[in-house]
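Journal club prep, shared notes

We agreed each person brings one worked example of a sequence with its structure written out as tokens. Mine is Nucleoside-diphosphate-sugar epimerase. I'm keeping it raw so we can talk through how to read the token line rather than staring at a rendered picture. Sequence first:
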Amino acid sequence: MKKVCVTGATGLLGTNVIIKLLQNGYSVIALVRKKSSWLGEENENLKLLEADLSSDLSLLLKEIDLVIHIAAETRQNLISYDEYRKVNYETTVNLFTHAELMNVKKFLFVSTANTLGYGTTTFRGNEQAPQLYPFTHSMYAQTKLEAEEYLLKNRKNTEVIIVHPTFMIGAYDSKPSSGKIIFWAWKKKLVFYPKGGKNFVHVEDAANGVLNAIEKGRNGEKYLLANENLSYKEFFKKINRITHQNPVMIAIPNGLLSFLGLIGEGLRKLKIKTNLSTSNMKALQICNYYSNQKSVNELGLHYQPVDKAIEDAIQYFDQNNK
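Then the structure, token by token:
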């Protein structure tokens, strides 16, 4: 039985990945901040360990076959690059250093699609496309890219595989995190939507992508875990159809979003935390589209419709009174 160490175990993707690992016969050590945060069921092959990812982790990685590093700082309101770098880069370096030291065979790093160049409906972004604005100005995306570059440059005895999920929707989104976008439209009489769009993927498919990358992924390669490219208007219409609602849909002018971004920059200069920034507001105006051909061809992934992801997320929110 292969032994796997997983970080970020209590988040949306981490929970789904661990459930898939256990279903597929892996033995899992999950590094968590609080054991009580685990949302899945107990399992004899799952061990929850409270650990600081910036500490010496070598003893925890003894006899581990592979590491899946999902933990990340994803909040959009932080104002310091170092706040992102400490989690997204420094803990990655620390974990990988100890993985190499303990002769871990594989290190799978979960990054983000936003370290890769996006495209349009005609020419979609892929694994070779260089990062583009506004994500070149996103502290989150930049620190993830910095970690990617370190891993690829410093791999020696441990194989490195990088996966790039797009916007994940599905069950076990407890905070909620990315699932917040569903609440923009769900149970609303008025829905205000940006004019841009993005790629959406069922979190179960992203979790399957992680498992398939473990078995089929090539050392030093990157894999986009992506599915449907949708405008925000199209995505919200799916929510309306699935939840049997008919709200008034109103487009947000790009100029207003840009203005809000400038306000956010002013607040940030005053050291006030805010989700508003020029890069975040610009991201809502572009079509942030990607291709999944490499993951389909090399990892053998089959993607579910985004409608199913929305249904599963809404069912989870309903059952957990979100």
